[in-house]
Amino acid sequence: MRESVIYQEIEAEAQAKGKAIGIAEGKAEGKAEGKAEGIRLVAVNLLKSQMSLAQVVRVTGLSLEEAELLQQEIEGEL
Question: How many domains does the chain have?
Fold first, then answer.
């Protein structure tokens, strides 16, 4: 009987630890996605204001390919 109680305590502790890890990972993933979306929006606004691709890449840290794709998306909207 005592072993069963110990096992249940260990299991409950492991579940709580796993849940905490999952929450932390979810928050980190959400922050990363939000940051990426913010950079994308800034890049779009810079491109719409006629800033050169090279400058957008330098300012935002995006790759040239990413900036070119954004520029193509903007041109497709017009």
Answer: 1
pLDDT at 53: 95
Q: Which residues of 22-34 are buried (b: 16+ CB within 10 A; e: fewer)?
A: eeeeeeeeeeeee
* Structural domain for 32, as ranges: 2-77
Tokens of 56: 């957008």
| H or E segment to which residue 26 belongs | helix 2-48
Return d(Cα 70, Cα 45) in angstroms, integer: 10
What is the pTM (predicted TM-score) of this model?
Answer: 0.71
How far is it, in rounded angstroms, from Cα 65 to Cα 42? Answer: 16
Task: State how far the Cα of 42 lies from the Cα of 35, in Å rounded to an integer.
Answer: 11
